[in-house]
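User: Show me a protein chain along with its predicted structure.
Assistant: Here is one chain, sequence first, then structure tokens.
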Amino acid sequence: MTKEQLRAELERKAKSLIDRGGGEVTLYAAQTKPDKRPWRKSPSRLNDAFQAELRQVESLEMGTLEGARR
């Protein structure tokens, strides 16, 4: 069954429902899709301290490498 056939079938059923019992067909708007934003956890104090320590070690190593090149 194609989409067009399905639409036609649903339209016929809706018309027959209205004609038979005087019923109402209510069409609702489509629901909006939720945002797909990634969940982000804020860094803890321990994570911040670890990152600071890594930066310090990296800067010391870069200074050591700079001195060895001269």
